[in-house]
Amino acid sequence: xxxGLKTSYAxxxxxxxxxxxxxxxxxxxxxxxxxxxxxxxxxxVGVGMWSRVWGxxxxxxxxxxxxxxxxxxxxxxxxxxxxxxxxxxxxxxELCKQLEEKHWVDIENVFFKHLSNDFEKPExxxxxxxxxxxxxxxxxNEVQLFARNAEIxxxxxxxxxxxxxxxxxxxxxxxxxxxxxxxxxxxxxxxWREIIASYLCGEKQxxxxxxxxxxxKRTIGSILPNGVDSLDDNRIxxxxxxxxxxxxxxxxxxxxxxxxxxxxxxxxxxxxHGELTKPESVIFGYGDEIDENYKxxxxxxxxxxxTNIKSIKYLESPNYRDLLAFIExxxxxxxxxxxxxxxxxxxxxxxxxxxxxxxxxxxxxxxxDDGTDNYMELVQNISRNFTDMKLMRDRVVNKxxxxxx
Length: 405
What we know:
Helix 1 crosses helix 3 (69-78) and helix 9 (189-197) crosses helix 10. This protein is mainly alpha-helical. It has three domains: 9-149, no CATH class; 174-241, no CATH class; 245-401, no CATH class. It is elongated, with a radius of gyration of 27 Å. It has a three-stranded antiparallel sheet. Strands 4-5 form a two-stranded parallel ribbon. Strands 6-7 form a two-stranded parallel ribbon. The protein is built from 16 helices and seven strands.
């Protein structure tokens, strides 16, 4: 969305109705049904198919004037003499209602609400989600065509590749900072050249390499007997703290974010929810095993309830194991850019946030023209992904040290 692409669920639902407009304009049947809703022509209308309605019943002064898809759908929904319009899915009906009232909607949360109630069969709700998933993939494939023209935001790019900062580290992980210094002080010149070359080029690369190697040569003698505690952090070159590796955990289905990381072995992208180029890999459902309703449906001994639970769908690809391998391998800091940290990903986020190797969680927040921002909303959402609130208060970077994006 920050790159001008219409990828919100609200945009998707608008597109869905526009597609219905095209279908009704060209329809060859008196009943058009997609599994979520249907339009049925009345027999007394005098035409046998939808494609004839617009010329016969709704004549215009200029017959060549093209019909607007929204106009067609509104006519079909509201002209009771023309047809019967039925939304056959309570799940989809609530999506539309929320969108109308709030101007936004979280499809996955609404899905879980309907899956876990006692009035709808899980097979029906899962079937409706499958229809929405297919249509969402169709829509995002169209949107991604425009992604080729999306320009990288250099400010965002710079933040993604930023060095570690000691003041971001949680109080309970200060020992990790010391471990990192002790480990890096032992890297040789070649190792530092490889790290720095991933981030910088040309004269900047050479300058950074000289500064880091020179710093190590000056201080290694005093560090060995006195330990890294004797170091003045303010005199350490900032490039000394460049991450060894960066993993971009992409929750979107598009590949826009991929363009922000250079194509080197130290940087990788994990499309945890799948990719549009592999439609079968797309995971669309709910991922909150902490929720009381999840415990209720898991105890029903009916696998249909678990068909679209993300934590189970993760087992269909190596992406989740690759993520676990990354967080088990070393100390890591989490940057959050663009993710609301809502409940639909709570199981995964809890694993990342409370892991012993996590030293801090830094949310990049949005600030509006009137001076208000969403830092507190992000932190409130992040807090729901913790089971240990004391740990949350230590690991989440306070607003003073966070940045806007």
